């Protein structure tokens, strides 16, 4: 069977036991297998490190896969704030971050993400890197709040912008598809952002706040 480009490049990297353990835990608990793709996980680490980010925010924690990838790029005095709707997911994500050696630089805020984002803004919190990977119908709302929470020069990334091909299929008109299509358009054209779309895996939007 011929390899896809994603499979080929993933195969060049050595196994990652910590992230493999997170994936096993997801399967064992019957959680949705929707963590960021391995290549984009590595990209999150690279973006965090290369941008010099010290304060990172992720919207949607699941089991901590993306959180570990981001934390790997933070300096020792860096801080990752994870927003998660479900308390059991948040607890597992923090446990996995601690097992990976990042427990001292991670915090979790449980509850509705829009409410949590509003509170962070009211508290005057600002971030250098923001990763969006939660309910798709709120992607535009998350983007607007991310811009307001971002330092100038901050990186914003958003996963699943292809929705397994549904955003490309004009016959698909569900609310999540329509929301992500509009998100993709806005992040590409908003004058406050310098942006790019990556078509590998399930799509990733990248932007730098001007």
Topology:
Layout: H1 5-10, H2 17-28, H3 38-51, E1 55-59, H4 65-73, E2 79-84, H5 87-99, E3 106-110, H6 113-122, E4 127-132, H7 139-149, E5 150-159, H8 175-189, E6 193-198, E7 204-209
Parallel strand pairs: 1-2, 1-4, 2-3, 4-5
Antiparallel strand pairs: 5-7, 6-7
Helix pairs in contact: 3-4, 6-7
Structure commentary:
The chain has helices at 5-10, 17-28, 38-51, 65-73, 87-99, 113-122, 139-149, 175-189, and strands at residues 55-59, 79-84, 106-110, 127-132, 150-159, 193-198, 204-209. A seven-stranded mixed beta sheet has the order 3-2-1-4-5-7-6, with helices on both faces. The protein has eight helices and seven strands. It has one domain: Vaccinia Virus protein VP39 (Rossmann fold, 3-Layer(aba) Sandwich), CATH 3.40.50.150. The termini are far apart. Helix 3 (38-51) runs parallel beside helix 4. The model has no long low-confidence stretch (mean pLDDT 97).
Write a short abstract of this structure.
The chain has 210 residues and is α/β, with parallel strands linked by helices. It is built from eight helices and seven strands; from the N terminus they run H-H-H-E-H-E-H-E-H-E-H-E-H-E-E. The chain has helices spanning 5-10, 17-28, 38-51, 65-73, 87-99, 113-122, 139-149, 175-189, and strands spanning 55-59, 79-84, 106-110, 127-132, 150-159, 193-198, 204-209.
């Amino acid at each position: 069977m011929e390899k896809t480009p994603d499979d080929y490049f993933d195969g060049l990297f050595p196994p990652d036991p910590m992230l493999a353990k997170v994936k096993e835990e997801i399967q064992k608990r019957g959680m949705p297998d929707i963590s960021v793709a391995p290549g984009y996980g590595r990209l999150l680490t690279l973006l965090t490190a290369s941008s010099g980010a010290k304060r990172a925010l992720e919207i949607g924690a699941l089991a901590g896969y993306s959180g570990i990838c981001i934390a790997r790029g933070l300096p020792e005095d860096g801080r990752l704030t994870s927003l998660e709707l479900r308390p059991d997911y948040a607890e597992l994500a923090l446990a996995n971050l601690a097992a990976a050696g990042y427990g001292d630089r991670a915090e979790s805020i449980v509850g509705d993400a829009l409410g949590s984002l509003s509170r962070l803004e009211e508290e005057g919190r600002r971030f250098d890197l923001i990763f969006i990977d939660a309910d798709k119908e709120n992607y535009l709302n998350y983007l607007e709040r991310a811009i307001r929470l971002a330092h100038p020069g901050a990186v914003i990334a958003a996963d699943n912008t292809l929705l397994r091909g549904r955003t490309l299929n004009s016959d698909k008109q569900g609310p999540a598809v329509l929301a992500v299509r509009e998100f993709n358009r806005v992040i590409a054209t908003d004058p406050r952002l310098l942006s790019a779309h990556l078509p590998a895996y399930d799509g990733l939007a990248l932007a730098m706040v001007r």
